[in-house]
Amino acid sequence: MPLSDPCRRKLQSIVGPDHFLKEEEDRACYAYDATAMFHMPDAVVFPKNARQVSEILILANQEGFCVTPRGHGSGMTGGSLPVEGGVALVMTRMSRILEIDTDNLTAHVETGVVTGRLHRAAEKKGLFYPPDPASSDFSTIGGNLGECAGGPRAVKYGVTRDYVLGLEVVLPTGEIIHTGVKTAKGVTGYDLARLFVGSEGTLGVITRAVLKLLPLPETIRTMSVVFDAMEDAAETVSEVIRKGIIPRAIEFMDNASIRCAEAHIGAGLPTGAGAMLIIETDGKKDEAENAVRELERLCLAGGRASSVRVAETPAEAEKLWKARKAVSPALFNYGSHKINEDIVVPRSRIPDMIRKINELREKTGLFMASFGHAGDGNIHFNIMLDKNNRDEMKKAEKTIEIIFDHTLALGGTLSGEHGVGVTKASHLPREIGATERALMRNIKKLFDPRNVLNPSKIFQPEGKEPGGGSD
């Protein structure tokens, strides 16, 4: 429902006039994310603490307007978009790193902290926060918690949920709760903290987090491996894991991704290659060096790789990572609209998935590019096209359906780190059965009986799912 003038005045009184936006040109800045969708909020507020968030949510329950939490809007599935209007709750004022505890290896942060800033703060203390999404230079800890972000280092170190010890959360009804512990162990009651992580801002607004840190690795070595065929690269990843070598990262880029990145930043990438892996090891100096030598031997065995190069300097390694991170924005040079999926398959089935993608590329003639976290089977599959071309759009939508069905047939999942949000909601029944979806809906209703917090995310409206909500 539209915000009334009394509601606007109350919201302004909660956060202050300097932290309340009502003009259309101001609100428009918070109507988009990394998708092509646009949903205008009726107002934008910037709370400074959990108490203000609580007051806003209490008012939302009283007046019946929606509240959509948001960090820096880098999400890929529309999770931070106010699709039903209402209030955009922007968390960027809550950006303090409250403590880096070197004795207990923890960080206590507000959730508006940019992830890369936490990385740097921890490293200054000789510590390490492993989750590293490609957006870490601008995404926030709150967004990472909401999506359970991963990144290249997930193959060795896991994802965001693996580093959450405790949370401060404002429930949709306005209560402020504290979940989890500050200790290495704790099994008192249900683990509510893990329920909130990955819930895409639908069950509560996370305002603070206690996160686990690790000692900073002594040495990092980075190498690039070039292949004539993407299938050879995929087979190599499976072989590396089978041999018991767990690198810090194993990233892959197919030929289309390599060409896009090279045209965008000119990093000297092998544009004629079928694929490239970026492999990184870390640990004690001898461990990292030994791992690099073993990886080099494995990659060249049987003639799979055409070349291997180990970065000699940090600058050379950084150049490789800059190229990898450039792929996603560079794709827009090849089409005005991007369909971006982040499927995951078991590592051993990566070659099967790549073969299917290549088959569809040949069959459809669509511009497709694949890259991502080969070490944990997470494939960022992209189609670039003109969304005004109805034939292309139909072809792309059918291709995505085939890819999703093949992913599930291989024992995979439809999203590894981007979440469901709006864009994947219609596909959720492909993977999750009616009973499980009903349980999830009931959890949402228990936490948010008036459905004021981030509505229309994850689930389609009841009655629109297959069989009217049952399979």
Relative helix content: 25-40%
- The whole-angstrom Rg is 23 Å
Number of helices: 16
**Uncertain ranges:** 467-471
What percentage of the residues does DSSP assign to strands (E)?
15-25%
Shape: globular
The CATH topology label of the largest domain is Vanillyl-alcohol Oxidase, Chain A, domain 3
Which architecture of the largest domain would the CATH scheme give at its second level?
A: 3-Layer(aba) Sandwich
In whole angstroms, how far apart are the ends? 32 Å
Q: Can you give the mean pLDDT?
A: 95
Name of the top-level CATH class of the largest domain: Alpha Beta
Spatial order of the strands forming the largest sheet: 15-12-14-13-17-18-16
Number of strands: 18
Main sheet: strands, sense, barrel: 7 strands, antiparallel
Total count of domains: 4
The H-level CATH homologous superfamily of the largest domain, spelled out, is FAD-linked oxidases, C-terminal domain
| Structural class based on helices, strands and sheet pairing | alpha+beta
Descriptive keywords:
Uridine Diphospho-n-acetylenolpyruvylglucosamine Reductase, domain 3, flavoprotein, 4 domains, FAD binding, Uridine Diphospho-n-acetylenolpyruvylglucosamine Reductase, domain 2, FAD-bd_PCMH_sub1, disordered C terminus, Vanillyl-alcohol Oxidase, Chain A, domain 3, 7-stranded antiparallel β-sheet, 18 strands, 471 residues, 5-stranded antiparallel β-sheet, FAD-bd_PCMH, single chain, alpha+beta
Could you give a quick summary of the protein structure above?
This protein has 471 residues and is α+β, with helices and mostly antiparallel strands. The protein has helices spanning 5-15, 24-27, 50-63, 115-124, 141-147, 154-157, 192-196, 230-242, 255-265, 285-300, 314-330, 350-364, 390-409, 428-431, 434-447, 466-469, and strands at residues 20-21, 43-45, 67-70, 87-90, 97-101, 106-110, 127-128, 164-170, 176-180, 205-212, 214-215, 219-227, 249-254, 275-283, 305-310, 337-344, 367-373, 378-385. Strand 5 and strand 6 form a beta hairpin.
